[in-house]
Amino acid sequence: MVNYGKYIKINRYLQKKSISELCDGICTPSTLSKIENNKSNINPKIINQILERLSNINIDILESNTNRLKPVTELFIQRLMLNLDRSNLMAKIEEEQFNYLHSEYILFFYTAKLFSNFDLYHINNQDIDEKILDLISEVIEFGDFNELYFYNLLKIIRYKNTNNRLRDFEKIIDGDRYGWLNYFYCDTLFHSGNINESYMGTKKCYELACENCNINLMYGCLLLLGLCSLELSNTNESVKYFKKLENLAPFMKYDINFVINYNLGATMLEKKNIEKAKYYLEALEANKYNYSLSSFFVVHKLGYLYTELKKYEKANYYINWINEFASKQDSKISNLLKKISDSLTIKLKEPNYLCNKKYQEDIEFIFQNSQSIFSYGFQKFYLADLEEVYLIQRRYKELYYIYKNR
Q: Model-level pTM greater than 0.85?
């Protein structure tokens, strides 16, 4: 069966589409996650609607293209592995570009273009298409064995001792695959509240990333280790990991300082350590934020911070941004965003906001709905606010069960 989940996931990343944007009006984010992970018993109509929105195709077209292109794809891989001439195959692949981009072999197509007809033993003398290399780098973790194999082969040939480039190659590629799987597992543990397990697993994952010189995996592990250390109240340890993260800056496309300031600021804000949160989040103010989901998370933290500090002008600016962003979303997301902005407005204007019935209802709504719409982490951010509300309402039993079930 065709791997439609991989195709959807890669295309969503390449088109910079958020989960909410892609599944809006079609299905829930959790259903889209199941589709991207190729879970069974998903209604084919939903998959076709997703494919239609993404690429104007359906399952039948995706399957037909994949099956038809399979022979030439496998032959190209065989010749590339043996370093044989493949120029005639490359010509066929170029002719089929449209169909490759609408098949399971979308990532293979870019990999083939990257290698073209290079002699593997003289690849250092060839011009590499950096744009294609960057594109593949964004989605390589979704690649199959062959795609990962050739991507890593290129890195080894370009950046390591060419005399030893094929030594332990299978070990390196297997390590990368194992490392990414473990990283995503540890990330899931972190967001589900299993901080100790996440920390121990990520440490092992980081060692493997260092062993294989996998910069992207090192970045993810260091960020996760720093956040775990903060959750475990080990400030010195977190500083050590974030310092290592800064040292990766020359090798990364990301703005490392932005990543660190946001994650540290958001964590401190969640813990109600307002002064430390202010120290980190203030550094993000200089940026201009377009109306997107990724920008919302930053703007939300800034709005929340200045509401806590009773900085009326700044708080109102970010609350108005949230309202404007809400007006551009579907009703489900818009309703949640409106509750968030309303709760911030009440908190900003009313000294005794905890006794405001609408505020209490808004906080409970945000907590109950934010995980399905955004993430567990976003829901967890509002746990302290819900605790305040339940305590003032004397709903001790419900509060007990929330903590018990975590």
A: no
